[in-house]
Amino acid sequence: MHCAESIQSFRFVWEDKTFRIGVSIGVVAINTTSQSLVNTLSSADSACYIAKNQGRDRVQIYQESDRTL
Q1: What is the per-residue pLDDT across 27-65, written as a single tens digit (0 to 9) for each?
Q2: What is residue 13's DSSP assignment?
Q3: How far apart are CA 63 and CA 69, in angstroms?
Q4: Distance between CA 33 and CA 39 in Å, rounded?
């Protein structure tokens, strides 16, 4: 089973209620040109919000040239 399928099919029960989980992941490269930790985390957060806005359950890779971000 593919990782995304595993996440989408996972359910958990709490107080007689069944819940489904989802994930939205923002990824940013960390290298010698990376700026401060605050900027790096902000970039990852921005990419995560784009992943959520584009339908959730996806990974968005941060790129400075991306106009959506």
Answers
A1: 999 988 888 899 999 999 999 999 889 887 888 889 877
A2: E
A3: 8
A4: 12
